[in-house]
């Protein structure tokens, strides 16, 4: 089997071959094919959103996706929760010497597929190779620019009376990765929810409903998003514990490991704060989409002197929902 | 797996919980303190807000039942010293990783490049040892009576299979001596115990008879769901109303009065009770830990690495009140450093260390009314 060599990152003949035979082959577009030092883009728009994210996931191939799909979807999602449709992406690859070439190609194919779903182009890139052992497998950075189609979304715009909606079960991706990690050797009947959110989010924004804030609950999970909103908008968010959708397998794994599903990452879900009068329409728009069938109203925004997130149980007790801190480690008993 | 959520639903049913809480309120017990021994129970009380459902004069006192929390700093230092030895792979259970010793933690040592692995089952040690025959694999064993049989099974398999590169560092501790130590302190006012379900599933209920008779306190062995715990509180109050003090089992779906004889035999074959063990927060407690029997000293990391391991006690910072919390004299919120200088990311004392610790549970599940 062919492996990535240090020479593939050296800028010489091998680098050129790798670009042609893997990246150009799968990402092909006019700006990329020009093979200049920078992509030249013609794009008449006055408001753009710009974001970057780096992706390290162990293992790089997991149930429901791989690091390539994640790297494209992650950046698309960061743009779309700002009301922006991703147009152009850059992709930087840092690869460990000895990484199977076949795996790199599989990752590129999956990036190309994910990019086409949102109608965007990967227009520039970079490859570096690090000596074996200096890095585990592969790290991908993607940066993306998108055209803002819906203005005013902000973590500071959550208002008293708003309804909080989540587009499906939380924590699927995090649980999936945790379960396949070294050291916790059990299998879950579960796939990562990793997906590009643009089509789903577009259907909500197109409906004209008043959305105040959107976030994809990645690292830190639902709890981190809601806490950030509460802090930045100076409100109290009350969540009905039993309304938060959690996959049975995720709940089971969390019980076993002593962790909270609301602390685990999702990679294909969106949380929305919407004007109460628009809640029904937004929920209907989400649920009419296959990626949003599991959407639920999970809470409301209350006026409060203290910004905080409160979880109300079915038996009417209330407690604080904190964001996670430190590395998520399973407990022993 | 798919049915697991269904399975525990009836034990979290809001209506059942409310009915039990109403029963308890009707019993008007007056002021009582109930110690839930196990950190798992503390976690359930705080997570489900059971204290909010019950009358304010029923007070839960959070016991010393978190095996990660009570490991003293000098033993964490020993784990770190072992991990720093060349050719040693240190293996332990996950949440011990972040417990700070005197100057480092296993998670920090792992970042420094030491070979430290987390496992979910002690038997995984065999695979690690098989994959790296040139390394010495040391299993840092922790836990109460519940997990001691798993370590004994590892010892058994290591001996049977002739595996030569596995050593055990024993930190298994015992529940009854710790409860005696708590009750033996001056001015302790605990009127009843909720006893740990999974410990008892192994040991049987005999281990609480002495406690129950000496101090005339009801002891109810409880399951780990909110309905279980409310039912256990009701059972305690029923005993008190009738003027009885007995050991009873609420967690009948897992606990037999005689426990698990096979597991007990495995533990008895390989382990003996130590003269004493130092508990973080509680100090030295006589006959409260297990060690490998002298016949198996060749597997004992404390023996084999004796020249590398410091044994002098290392105490917590003097502002830490964990000892008082573990004896039920103070609550986490009484501590001046709770949630400020002492957090889960940087725990200063036993109760903040693991998610099962009382301070950790208070901080994670801050209650609002």
Can you describe this structure in just a few lines?
Chain A is of the alpha+beta class and 333 residues long. Chain A is 30% helix and 24% strand.
Structural overview:
- The complex is a heterodimer of chains A (333) and B (369).
- With 333 residues, chain A is α+β, with helices and mostly antiparallel strands.
- Chain A has 2 domains: 6-148, 60s Ribosomal Protein L30, Chain: A, CATH 3.30.1330; 163-320, Phosphoribosyl-aminoimidazole Synthetase, Chain A, domain 2, CATH 3.90.650.10.
- Chain A has helices at 13-27, 30-33, 67-80, 101-117, 172-180, 198-206, 221-233, 248-257, 279-287, and strands at 48-55, 61-62, 65-66, 84-96, 121-130, 138-148, 163-166, 211-215, 236-240, 271-274, 296-302, 308-312, 318-320.
- In chain A, a hairpin with a 2-residue loop joins strand 2 and strand 3.
- With 369 residues, chain B is of the alpha/beta class.
- Chain B has 2 domains: 9-321, HypD, alpha/beta domain 2 (Rossmann fold); 322-363, no CATH class.
- Chain B is built from 17 helices and 14 strands.
- In chain B, strand 5, helix 8 and strand 6 form a beta-alpha-beta unit.
- In chain B, helix 2 runs parallel beside helix 12 and helix 8 crosses helix 13 (261-270).
- Chain B starts with a helix and ends with a strand.
- The mean pLDDT of chain B is 92.
- Classes of the chains: A alpha+beta (333), B alpha/beta (369).
- The A-B interface holds A 182-186, 188-189, 248-249, 251-252, 255, 258, 308, 310, 313-320, 322, 325-327, 329-333 and B 1-6, 8, 14, 17-18, 40, 43, 46-50, 52-53, 67-68, 93-98, 107, 117-120, 124, 142-144, 146-147, 198, 226, 343-345, 354-356, 363-369.
